[in-house]
Amino acid sequence: MDAADIKNLKATELRLGLPGTHLEENNVISEEKSSSSLTPVLNNNKRPLQLPADEETSPANKDSGSKCSNKNSDDDAAPPPSKAKIVGWPPIRSYRKNSLQEQSEAAGGIYVKVSMDGAPYLRKIDLKVYGGYPQLLKALENMFKLTIGEYSEKEGYKGSDYAPTYEDKDGDWMLVGDVPWDMFVTSCKRLRIMKGSEARGLGCAV
Amino acid sequence: MTHSGSSLPDLPNSTSTSGPMSEIRSPPPDRVLEIVLENVLHFLTCRRDRNAASLVCRSWYRAEALTRSDLFIGNCYAVSPHRATSRFRRVKSLTVKGKPRFADFDLLPLNWGANFSPWGSALADSYPWLEKLHLKRMSLTDDDLDLIARSFPSFKELVLVCCEGFGIAGIASIAANCRLLRVLDLVESVVEVADEDEEVMDWISCFPEGETHLESLMFECVDCPVNFEALEGLVARSPFLKKLRLNRFVSIPQLYRLMHRAPQLTHIGTGSFCASDDVAVGDQEPDYASAFAACKSLVCLSGFRDILPDYLPAIYPACANLTSLNLSYADVNADQLKPVILQCHKLQTLWVLDSICDEGLQAVAATCKDLRELRVFPVNTREEVEGPVSEVGLEVISQGCRKLQSILFFCQRMTNAAVIAMSKNCPDLVVFRLCIIGRYRPDPETQEPMDDGFGAIVMNCKKLTRLAVSGLLTDQAFRYIGMYGKLVRTLSVAFAGDSDQGLKYVLEGCPNLQKLEIRDSPFGDAALRSGLHHFYNMRFLWMSSCKLTRQACQEIARTLPHLALEVIDSQEDKADDHIEILYMYRSLDRPRNDAPKCVTILQ
């Protein structure tokens, strides 16, 4: 089956969402990205729609069933999988799935690791607990028994040997306080309290 | 046979010689052979051998039944407890397995069954000398555990794997009442713990005072805080303790203390492997590596439930001796893994997350030349285009780990070439389970189905007994399995195949097939019928979201009376005739009476 066929299939494929939405856009992007993978399955980068998990475990997903019959009725092509979550797929025990999930967010909290230069170990804090930067900084000061001082846009944490920094979603290290609090909370992956010249350097670079 | 003052008749194998030995009674001739047989059968431990021996003749059947002390029940509904206890009178150790494996993935309704209670009462009546109980995928309550705790004074070993329905109270009862307890292993089971506001029962404190007989204590899945002081005390007074698997509520400084208390440990589940919240920053942290150095017999490490990778170097002193390492709950990348794995020359079993990437697998392949079992689990379970591990990692492992026997590999992309390479490089493979998370995905290089890859596995891996397939597969893949998979006992199929012919190939071609689980594949009634000659040889058949009709199942139920066909349907009126789930198994007894409403058992 060649690319043209696949494109035609895409046009007729059943999908959640209105036609002419940004789903089309993503298709273009994904085609560029995955030039070697031309199957209907890999037609966009969008995350599958996450339906709320049923409390009652249902024996088999209706979607899977109907997909099954679709496959056999007419096309010789593999049917695109529904964007809905398939029950029991991939085959990972819920015990394992739940455990991994616990690690990333416990009961809605946003846990990030906090390290401090010179200290041989790390801590973990829940960002959701704090209302804003002042509370967070105070907590860090208490936790690590040091003074961080006040943030200023130009000079960072001048007057302190320490600067709280964080790694954001893109992997960049930023000074804590550079972005609005809400943006910080959602983009912060981990915190690091830098010491000494490195800290001052970062402050000035901002 | 009577005594007399005179010498006893000359019997072969008679215990008496002559004259005044009349107090010693010779057994009757036919019993002599049985006694010899019983003594000989004592040496037969493998259940398949015992099954064969029991078929020779009636007296062998009887002798075997009297001497079997380890009883294995592969399906709790295949025989009634009464039938089992009537035949085997002197059982000391019992294993019972309940739900089918697909229950782990939420495909079976809640309350489906596999209740332990009927077994519990039968055991309490028939085997007061019971020492060991191993249960897998069974549903048992606190009352069941309490019954076990109180009914067997010699009870030594309780192993619960993937079980549910019980809570802390049940565990506490076992701890308190089983004075000779050596093994308490709770593995991947769902344990009811109290809600946050309620007090959690301190089950560790329920172990009696004084020295214990404990050799193995695994409570990783008991998801609530433990009384650490009591735990430390327990470990300190358990000189025989070799295996200890902690839950995620035990912090690394606590682990440190426990390890120094029990340097004889061989298997450790490390708990969280993370600092606890109340450790103040100024405090000196102990030298965690010293604990790992102190446990000189350590061969198996697992846990790392909440790991801070910066702590990983603490395990270095143990790496050279490790044969088993389970990092499958630890989100570590290649750079964090490498310094560890490069020291693990003796490793035979490795479970990891795909966060280590193909690069991490490369490091494994370079060092772990003795690797027998590898499992790579996904961090991200969505169907994505690319993932951190791929055919590159699989091929590299196949080149480096030639002794590989068992592999479970989750990935987003895989090529036939890599699978074929593994089939040639790893001829000792017994278990090959590949899960390409994106369903119906072909080989990304060739756009071909994955038929040839799996075909090569069954063709080249002559010892293969367990196979799980995935990716885009046509009937051809099943043709290969039917042709070459002569030793295959367990086969897992999902979203695969084109037509009835696929399943026919397997049912007609695989004489050793015992466990067949299929979901979301286009196999229908004709395919099912092609297995009639073989169903009595199987432990079970599972087919969900396929194309089976109730009529066909009814037909089969009538044709094969000792087959239980459970049709599970969650809704009454449906668009088509197809049933949702068929779970079929051989059974010597009447259909069970504990099934929920959505289950119909056809006869």
From TrEMBL, chain A:
**Iron-sulfur as UniProt keyword:** no
Tell where it localizes: Nucleus
Q: Does the keyword Repressor apply?
A: yes
Compositionally biased residues, Basic and acidic residues: 22-34
Q: Say which domain of life the source belongs to.
A: Eukaryota
Q: What is its main location?
A: nucleus
Domain PB1, residue spans: 109-196
Bias type Polar residues, positions: 35-47, 58-71
Keywords attached to this entry: Auxin signaling pathway, Nucleus, Repressor, Transcription, Transcription regulation
* Region (Disordered) residue spans: 17-88
What's this protein's function? Answer: Aux/IAA proteins are short-lived transcriptional factors that function as repressors of early auxin response genes at low auxin concentrations. Repression is thought to result from the interaction with auxin response factors (ARFs), proteins that bind to the auxin-responsive promoter element (AuxRE). Formation of heterodimers with ARF proteins may alter their ability to modulate early auxin response genes expression.
Assembly information from the UniProt record: Homodimers and heterodimers.
Q: Which family does it belong to?
A: Belongs to the Aux/IAA family.
**Under which name does UniProt file this protein?**
Auxin-induced protein
Task: Write the lineage as a comma-separated list.
Answer: Eukaryota, Viridiplantae, Streptophyta, Embryophyta, Tracheophyta
Q: Which gene encodes it?
A: AUX22B_2
UniProtKB/TrEMBL annotation, chain B:
**SMART domains cross-referenced by the UniProt entry:** LRR_CC
Region Disordered, as annotated, extends over: 1-27
* TM region positions: none
Gene name of the encoded protein = AFB5_1
SUPFAM superfamilies on file: RNI-like
Database matches in CDD domains: F-box_AtTIR1-like
InterPro entries documented for this protein: COI1_F-box (IPR041567), Leu-rich_rpt_Cys-con_subtyp (IPR006553), LRR_dom_sf (IPR032675), Transp_inhibit (IPR041101)
Q: Which residues form the COI1 F-box domain?
A: 30-69
Task: List where Polar residues composition bias occurs.
Answer: 1-20
Q: Which residues form the Transport inhibitor response domain?
A: 90-135
Protein name as catalogued:
Transport inhibitor response 1-like
